[in-house]
Write a structure and sequence with these properties.
208 residues; 2 domains
Length: 208
Amino acid sequence: MANKELTINQFIKAIADEKDLVQKRLKQIQFELGTEVLKLAKAKANENFGRGGGRSARTKGRSGALRRSGTLAYDGEDLLITFGGGGVPYAQIQEFGTRGRGGLMPPIVPREKKWLTIPVKEPYFGKRGPEFDLYFRLLGGTTASGGAKAALFEKFAPYEMAYFLTDKVEIPPRPYLSPALDEIMTQAAIKKKIQGAFVSASIDWEVT
């Protein structure tokens, strides 16, 4: 049985009536893809911090903060995936790295003090050197980043290093968001999402 032929005006009206549905489905696809990118980026952030075996002084506790900082939100028509914020100032450093290690960001240097203070064991993680009875010692040579070296040592047995000090740190790129985008936002994935969303809107045809 032949369908009734549409006039141009009827076709334009039909398209207009379906506009809201099309936009809603495309918005749904956008949000689903964004959610998948965010989930994968959070997983990659954890993987990056876990490299090298165990949690070091540099990374201890930070993978969780970086993962939790990831958000998905709309800014007008644009869907934004954001990591970092005031509580995670190293989010950009992890993604892009510093120039001295093949990255894009400037090296990490002290802003107000003379030294960057890096705890090396318990109970110093998450705490400041002045909270403890320690003594300062200048170490010879330079770090791999070209910075000076010093340390704060315990004044009691076993007289071990509590904090490593340096005036410059270079970090290689450890990207988590860009690889997630590359992996999820492929032409094949987007096509599959669109086909799935509009599978019920296929074109029927017949020869009479």
